[in-house]
Amino acid sequence: MPEFLELLTPDVAIDKFLQYLKDVNLKVEKNKTQNCLNRVLAKNIVSKDDIPAFTRSTVDGFAVRSKDTFGSSDVMPAFFEIIGEIKMGKPANFQLSTGQACLIHTGGMLPDEADSVVMVEHTQYSNSGEIEVYKAISSGENVILKGEDIQQGDQVLTSGTLIRASEIGALMALGITEIDIYELPRIGIISTGDEVITPDEFPDLGQVRDINSYSLSAIVEKLGGIPRTYPIVKDEREQLMDMLKKAFNENDLLIVTAGSSASVRDLTADVINELGTPGVLVHGINVRPGKPTILAFANGKPIIGLPGNPVSAFVIAHLILGKIMHVLRGEIKQFSYQSFKALTTINVASVAGREDWVPVKLLDIEKDGMKLVEPIFYKSNLIFSLLTAIGLARIEPDVTGLEAFSEVEVFII
Amino acid sequence: MPEFLELLTPDVAIDKFLQYLKDVNLKVEKNKTQNCLNRVLAKNIVSKDDIPAFTRSTVDGFAVRSKDTFGSSDVMPAFFEIIGEIKMGKPANFQLSTGQACLIHTGGMLPDEADSVVMVEHTQYSNSGEIEVYKAISSGENVILKGEDIQQGDQVLTSGTLIRASEIGALMALGITEIDIYELPRIGIISTGDEVITPDEFPDLGQVRDINSYSLSAIVEKLGGIPRTYPIVKDEREQLMDMLKKAFNENDLLIVTAGSSASVRDLTADVINELGTPGVLVHGINVRPGKPTILAFANGKPIIGLPGNPVSAFVIAHLILGKIMHVLRGEIKQFSYQSFKALTTINVASVAGREDWVPVKLLDIEKDGMKLVEPIFYKSNLIFSLLTAIGLARIEPDVTGLEAFSEVEVFII
Q1: If you write DSSP's letter for every residue of B333-351 in order, what string do you get?
Q2: Pairing state of beta strands B130-133 and B78-85?
Q3: Which of A341, A366, A384 to probe the B interface (max B CBs under 10 A)?
């Protein structure tokens, strides 16, 4: 297996791969803002309005000219004539003169002549139509000025921003009900193998059901892409080539899970190389599981060859796919894994130079304020080992295993 | 404001509320397994098959009877006659006798007579049709036995389990292509306020655009529910009652954002009380922002009254909605917020007994291996304060503020 002579660590392999992704061309579409949760903005957003659009009260109380409250206190209240109430959603229909106040609710628009609001707690009704104010307030107190948050012409959001609930809210506040977003990347997924059948078939002796098409589709969906599966391909050059070409042309990224034997892996690499240049960049990564991973580019489009073993494919997809899809989705913020730090309950063996990923179960107890995780070992490394796992613990390439109660980073699955 | 005389802390208020949610009836639907990412299983899954269904090789090599390798070593190899190759996806079409071996690939089915596989690395071709084996192996080495992972009748998944990529993979491995899942909870969302207009309208003086319908919908969507918005309701008793009744009947949970003034909050509480018993359970929580929150139940169905201020509504939705929707979705695992620990860069003031939630920005630098976050203060507490925030830092009720470089938990938004 000459391809494994010089194995790169995952970080180095992925960096090498991502270099080629820099110049990728992203397509843009328009969509209603309210449908854009978890999409990525493709254009800067500049406000056409001042927000707030008018000076508003931030409390329930009485709008006044602040200078009229000067010197007032608990023992020496100031008196104001109440001349009306500000209706919500309407400007004042009166003018406020010196010594006058009007009732105002939170969010209400201040009359032009008022510059502040006395909270209702600091007032008391006295004679009919009059209040006593027990506190001197300053100009601007309990109000938010027109344009204080956002001014017309301010850049509010940058192209490449992930749209969350808060971004949707802000866009609505600005009256921006349609936006330019990047198209979701389409990810073609092909399972291969003479022994592989679809899950609804009953396996004959020697056959196994296709897992990878579905678990990888789910990972792609979770990461915000559109998964597109293709029929299972036999380990046969011409058939593999036809299907890979078709899926390669129809998608922004192609994932092929190859059989585990060396000859089948070589066949997959050969066919990938024929799709375009530069072809295979990385063939084999110093990681377990997932060593026989292929990273390739053909004419500007990325291709990933994953091992056929479902856990290996799952681990490498989590390790690589997030970063790649982040770029293909147009996100500018640095990609970050969803992870947490924890202590392992038992020793975990590893080999220096190789990065290991071990499924772990979260325990209900903590130790020294740290979460505890228990590594899960299944003999065959089948997908069932992941069912009770909260995530995958990473054992860095430069260590030769972990002792019990060492700290590990757990990547949530 | 008598309702605020005895304010509960958020944890106590939510626990009180969740008590009533225990007996909620969840509806079940059938769906294709491949469409069930992020859904919740409504029935235990028992395997009808042994997995693997046949004894398989876990390496590329030669299937043998292990006792034939007894005593073999680098200096004293054992010789085997090669009688064929196991094709992927097929059983052997020959019988293996003593002293015989056959080529087998990873995942290939062992011949009945073999009990182990010698890795190709420990063999060498000698005369034509023969190999030398340089290592003694034990029974079961490099194979995974029929039924070793899962046996027919094993319970593989429990009702109430969240379906992730790994669960989809496991179900496919078992040939279970359709499953029973809980229906997604439908969450009715109503914005109220005389001053509130739809985002596509241009506000007159005193009016503001509806933010809450959209930011809350996005939060519901993120938490795995179906948001359903209704037309904006004016602060008028009959109109409010009609719309609340309609939305209450059409959904599994109703969220109403009320205006911020005391009279409008009281109106909302009154109308909620008329929807059924026991009515309002909590009216006001000791939290900032979000104090005027209402938690209610009417005839077994939950209702939440949120403050009209978009940041207050946003914070309380993050604080409460996750836990409620977790129950309405049928999940059995304890709900856990998506959060991380960090240090604040500056002092944050708070009041003992009150829980504070402060938007924070993640900085690029770390201190002592901890992430650093910078609190964001906006005067008006408008939605824009959340745009640069990674999350909300919680300041526990029992502290009177945080000094710079104190540890906080940040809840990701």
Answers
A1: SPP---EEEEEESS-EE--
A2: antiparallel
A3: A384
The residue whose two tokens read 């506190």 is A135
User: Cβ–Cβ of B172/A215 closer than 8 Å?
Assistant: yes
What pTM, to 2 d.p., does this model score? 0.95
Residues A260 and A314 in one domain: yes
Q: Given CB atoms, is B206 within the 8 Å cutoff of chain A?
A: yes
- pLDDT number for residue A383: 84
Helix ranges, A126-236 (H): 165-173, 212-222
Residue A290 contacts B where some CB pair is shorter than 8 Å: no
The Cα A10–Cα A320 span in angstroms is 8
Contact assignment for B383 to A177 by CB distance below 8 Å: no
Which amino acid makes up residue B274?
E
Q: How far apart (Å, rounded) are the C-alpha atoms in residues A323 and A14?
A: 9
- Torsion, Cα of A389, A219, A311, B91 (10° steps): 130
- For the segment A155-170, what is each residue's pLDDT rounded down to a tens digit? 999 999 999 999 999 9
Q: Cα A256–A257–A259 angle (5° rounding)?
A: 130
d(CA B344, CA B403): 8
Angle between helices A165-173 and B212-222 (to 10 degrees): 160
The three-state DSSP-derived secondary structure of A269-281 is HHHHHCCCCEEEE
Cα B367 to chain centroid distance, Å, stands at 30
The parent domain of residue B228 ranges over 2-27+183-328
Quote the CA–CA distance of B297 and B279 in Å, as a whole number: 5
Map tokens 């508003």 to a residue. A56
Query: Would A101 be classed as within a structural domain?
Result: yes
In this structure, are residues A138 and A71 in contact, taking their beta carbons and an 8 Å threshold?
no
Q: Is some CB atom of chain A closer than 8 A to the CB atom of B109?
A: yes
Nearest to B257 by CA among B286, B290, B222: B290
**Cβ–Cβ of B89/A211 closer than 8 Å?**
no
Last residue of a domain, one of B144, B174, B197: B144
Within this chain, do residues A261 and A296 fall inside the same structural domain, yes or no?
yes
Length of chain B: 413
Q: How far is B124 from chain A (nearest CA, A)?
A: 15
Q: In terms of domains, do B44 and B75 share one?
A: no
A37-60 confidence digits (pLDDT tens): 999 999 999 999 999 999 999 999
Residue B303, pLDDT > 60, answer: yes
